[in-house]
Amino acid sequence: QNNIIGFCLGSASQFISHLKINKEASSQTYCNSLILLKLISEYIIKWFIRVMIIKMSKTGKVASPQRVKGAQHGHTCVCSLDFSAWDFPVQRFEETEKMIEKCQDSLGELQAQVNFTEFKVPEISGTLENIVERLHRFEHLNKKGLYNALNFRLLDYELQELEMRIKGAHQNEEVDPSKSRELTNELSSIREKVQGLQKFDKFNLLALKENLRTLRNRLESCRTLDSNHLGQCSRRLLSNISSPVVTQLSPFGKSYPFGSWGKETMEGKRATYWVQPLVNSNKYGNVLRTYASYTDFMFSKNQNDFTVTSSHSSTNAIQGPGSVLYDEAFYYNCYRTANLCKYDLKSKTILHATLPGAGFNDKFPYCYYSCYDSTDIDFAADEKGLWVIYATEENYGNMVVSKLNTSSLAVIQTWRTRLFKKSVTNTFMVCGVLYATRYVNTYREEVFYAFDTKTGHETNVLSLPFEKISGRIQNLHYNPRDQRLYLFNDAYMMAYELFF
User: Domain Olfactomedin-like: where (predicted)?
Assistant: First the structure.
């Protein structure tokens, strides 16, 4: 009996030890083990009682019939029988009962451990997942080599390049001499910090890169601006957006929900209205439709269609809705490349140039939950000229703004922001200030971010809502001629007044 009860207690003890050691086992496994252990214990107890009874019968005189002699007294037979063999083993039964209670206590302890595990394991697992996720970021940075010697060497090269640009701007009198000296002093200070980081503190490298980005932006902002534009951009940040003042269905209908539209943005040119539909998979196109007047546009008459390329899949076909008409030329992203294309409406010729480092083919598109196809490269025009908005790996997918030379499509100036491009739905430029929008609901969008290329300052606390027809917006740009915002929204063309 001791062996049987010991087996019961040993089984419970083993299960409890297993619970304490094996933290990764599921709660269901423990529950199943507990049920099985109870069934085994009940079976063992019944079997033990049965064996004990049989054993008692073997140790007593029950094993063979008792033969006794009787005496006859009258008509009655009198005999003496020994019933001691059938005495109930009270002491042994009490000992067995105590062992069973001890076994049940062990099972109760196991049940408590299981209940505790069901409550505590999810909490521990959540904590571990959080720690692993946080460590994964550092592991990712380490594997990417952000803190190795090569990156410090590249940072040295960037400092040298920036130093040469500051000297060149000073020699060409593009920057005020006092500003030039101030930038040079700051650059020297940063160089000393880099040398210190190489010896002591590599983990501040990202912060230093952020300082370098800010310094670059300040250099670009200090360069001489065209005096003709200074008077036009004396107003402050955008303060409000009106209800739609124009709402018109695209002349190509709802069959082509993606595209762009607008009005000639160059001051002094004919006020040409234009529409460009994307026909192949809502990504590519090759036709530009123009109207000579607002009346023709509203009544969809007297249109003039330009066939930019022979097909929507040829080399210089139109990709994406990020287009704009500026100085009688149509600017767009060339088919499946990081190239910028310029289609001259007069000569009907195409000029193209590569945008260095720009993501394309949906690498850094505009997004909200799902991303908007072929929106990696977005053109904009304002009082200061022609711009292109995109993102690069060098800037970690954050938005980059570049000023363009309209004759050669060469990049003149570049500013790097800290706004992740995939976190916004669209952008536009007003007086050298980049504005970004985000989704609010199906019928409302909101301007929430601004980056000023003049000062390098940025803010994300704006809240300027405006109405729309449906969820996704394809093209959004500002026109400095009438200070209106033009929107292409699932085949609908809309315009808004801006207030400063």
Answer: 232-500
Minimal CA–CA distance to 452: which of 218, 226, 227, 162?
Answer: 218
Q: Report the alpha-carbon distance of residue 292 to residue 302 in Å, rounded.
A: 8
Topology of the domain comprising 240-499: Methylamine Dehydrogenase; Chain H (2.130.10)
Task: State pTM to two decimals.
Answer: 0.59
Residue 433 vs residue 52, higher pLDDT: 433
pLDDT digits (tens, 9 = 90+) for 102-127: 777 777 777 777 776 666 556 655 65
- Residue-wise pLDDT for 157-183, tens only, equals 666 776 777 677 666 666 666 766 777
What 3 state SS string does the chain have?
A: CHHHHHHHHHHHHHHHHHHHHCCCCCHHHHHHHHHHHHHHHHHHHHHHHHHHHHHHHHHCHHHCCCCCCCEEECCEEECCCCCHHHCCCHHHHHHHHHHHHHHHHHHHHHHHHHHHHHHHHHHHHHHHHHHHHHHHHHHHHHHHCCCCHHHHHHHHHHHHHHHHHHHHHHHCCCCCHHHHHHHHHHHHHHHHHHHHHHHCCHHHHHHHHHHHHHHHHHHHHHCCCCHHHHCCCCCCCCCEECCCCEEEECCCCCCCCCEEEEECCCCCCCCCEEEEECCECCCEECEEEEECCHHHHHHCCCCEEEECCCCCCCCCCEEEEEEEECCCEEEEEECCCCEEEEEECCCCCEEEEECCCECCCCCCCCEECEECCCCCCEEEEECCEEEEEEEECCCCCEEEEEEECCCCCCEEEEEEEEEEHHHCCEEEEECCEEEEEEEEECCEEEEEEEEECCCCCEECCCCEEEECCCCCCCEEEEECCCCEEEEEECCEEEEEEEEC
Under a CB-based contact definition with an 8 Å cutoff, are residues 103 and 43 in contact? Answer: no
Tokens of 418: 């800290």
- How far is it, in rounded angstroms, from Cα 387 to Cα 434? 10
**Domain extent listing, the chain:** 189-223, 240-499
How many angstroms from the chain centroid is the CA of residue 52? Answer: 71
